[in-house]
Amino acid sequence: MFLHIVCLLSLAVALPSNVATSPKPGCESTCGNLQVPYPFGIGIGSNCSMSSDFDIYCNTTDNPPRAYLTRAASPFEVLKISETNIYVKNWRQQQIVACYASREYFSLEIDYFANSPYTLSDANQFTVFGCDDLAIGQHLSSDSNYSAYGAGTSCAPYCESREVSGGTGSCPGNGCCQTSISKGKKFMMTRLINMERNWQRRKLFSCSFLSLGMMNITGFTFRLSDLNDSTFLNKYPAFTDIPLVLDWRIGSQNCSEMLSSSSYACKENSYCDDSLAGVRGYNCRCMKGYEGTPYLSPGCH
Ligand SMILES: *[C@@H]1O[C@H](CO)[C@@H](O)[C@H](O)[C@H]1NC(C)=O
Ligand SMILES: *[C@@H]1O[C@H](CO)[C@@H](O)[C@H](O)[C@H]1NC(C)=O
Ligand SMILES: *[C@@H]1O[C@H](CO)[C@@H](O)[C@H](O)[C@H]1NC(C)=O
Ligand SMILES: *[C@@H]1O[C@H](CO)[C@@H](O)[C@H](O)[C@H]1NC(C)=O
Ligand SMILES: *[C@@H]1O[C@H](CO)[C@@H](O)[C@H](O)[C@H]1NC(C)=O
Ligand SMILES: *[C@@H]1O[C@H](CO)[C@@H](O)[C@H](O)[C@H]1NC(C)=O
């Protein structure tokens, strides 16, 4: 029981608080507890968003209503929208419990952000619980080309035997590793590979766990023997709520290209921000001392 309490406390990552922003006039501003500021809008094809990429489906059958980003085949629930980020979750897209048995690897593909205004944020990490695995993450930058592999990252969890460790794992450390992912990528393919043979030690536990998202594991401890259980996520239900953080932007050109364009979207008292080099699009931000919705006239005040 103690271990589970530690788990819940240390996983809680505070999402940023709301800023005063508005929806398009005549459109709903909230879905349940979620504030939906323009360029996002509630409703599919309701003309409340800037483009269908920013349509939010609000399921009012749920109580409280829940919001979903619908462009994905398997929709992500939307937890929070901020000036440049959107926090979403869909644990089936973000987690693998890998019980290898006769398989040597498991793959997880987050590949739903092609031709979209969204890229993975570097606020995410991938985190792996295991004793003899290699986890690799391959980023793909291109919108349409799966063979153009970009940068990669990896980590390898390892654990001491029960006799040495008392059977307790810790993060990062005994039986757990975590690695950051780089900003600006649309795809991520992660793979968990069984390293039992390479490390010439009999497998201590049959399963391993990989999670992609923003996860605070500082001080986290767990029972290594839970890795023998294919229903691992039932023991750690908080893991199914880990947010995936996306950066969002509008348009397909950057600020220097937009400033002279008639479709430049930043309204009064706002400025254009394209701080993320190499990614198409830009954000409008209120000037210092101003607040509001920079994408809607009369802009920030
Ligand atoms: C992570 O969790 C630790 C322990 O609960 C806490 O002290 C720290 O502030 C948290 N960090 C973040 C970024 O939430
Ligand atoms: C959508 O809204 C814009 C104003 O933001 C308006 O010009 C346009 O006619 C609307 N389109 C539809 C189909 O309602
Ligand atoms: C809306 O939520 C209800 C209750 O959770 C669910 O049964 C229904 O399938 C959802 N509707 C859609 C279109 O996803
Ligand atoms: C995809 O990328 C590969 C490697 O960079 C290149 O050889 C190929 O021509 C590209 N294909 C398309 C359709 O762009
Ligand atoms: C975990 O499973 C392995 C293989 O099935 C078994 O040898 C081992 O005793 C189990 N460990 C625990 C702590 O249950
Ligand atoms: C903006 O786009 C132009 C034209 O593609 C390019 O030359 C320039 O380097 C870009 N600027 C940034 C900050 O990405």
UniProtKB/TrEMBL annotation:
**Which Gene Ontology terms cover its molecular function?**
kinase activity; polysaccharide binding
Quick check: keyword Kinase in the entry? yes
Broad class of the protein's primary localization: membrane
Which InterPro entries has this protein been placed in?
WAK_GUB
UniProt keyword list: Kinase, Receptor, Signal, Transferase
Its annotated compartments are: Membrane
Superkingdom field:
Eukaryota
Question: Which residues, by range, are in coiled-coil regions?
Answer: none
Q: Where is the Wall-associated receptor kinase galacturonan-binding domain?
A: 27-85
Cross-referenced Pfam families: GUB_WAK_bind
Signal peptide range in chain numbering: 1-21
This protein's GO cellular component annotations are: membrane
Q: What membrane topology is given?
A: Single-pass membrane protein
Query: Which PANTHER family does the entry link to?
Result: OSJNBA0016N04.9 PROTEIN (PTHR33491)
Protein name (record): Wall-associated receptor kinase 2-like
